[in-house]
Amino acid sequence: MEDLNKAKVLQMLVGQSPRGFWSEFGILLRQTYMDTFEQVAHERMILSEHKIDYLLQLRHFRVESLLHSVAQRHGLPSTATLLVANHRSYVMAGAGSIAFTQAYIPTISEMPQPARFREKHSLMNEIARGGRLALGDQPVELLAGKAFYGIICHNPVGRRFEKDLQKLGMVQFCVPGAGCKDWLAEVTFQEIVAAYGAEKRAEQRKARGLPWKDEQKKQDKRG
Predict the structure, then answer these.
(1) Of 13, 16, 100, 173, which has the fewest beta carbons less than 10 angstroms from its beta carbon?
(2) Which domain holds residue 45?
(3) Which H helix or E strand runs over 104?
(4) Considering only CA atoms, which of 126, 71, 123, 125 is closest in space to residue 102?
């Protein structure tokens, strides 16, 4: 298998997953960011000094639920029982030969907080580049036949507990390298959604250039 890069990742995402999943998840993620902020802002039993920490935890679980439900609505396999680390389970979804989870990161350039499952699955990408499968003790249901493992990474505009700073800042599909120490590829959701339109236009241009199309036009004119 050729090395993973942005173009290759985009090609596989567009070819193996529905556009609606990325569009809907992106829209609902933005709403989830604001809903969780409002919920925490009006929580009287949490000290103001603790609200930003509480928000990060609440947002994580809400986005986990969001990933699971949106994946299911668009026919993608998803489970919250296969990946467990530090007594916490994580949602994993799949699309064709791609498997992915989600994670909050302070800034898009940073890597997500260490978790054993992220480190183990990031090794899949290194092995995939060599053309081999990395099953080991991993669950067969979502990992068998996967070309690479990705993480939907998202973050707010800022870090302080203020409404404008806790809006969704950016969301990307990132492919981690070994040990989750760097990114092999980073693709924004806007680029993913736009790629579907680009592929459709390319197919239309190709179809217009097919010989049988020209012959059909000639026959139509003669008719």
Answers:
(1) 16
(2) 6-192
(3) strand 98-104
(4) 71
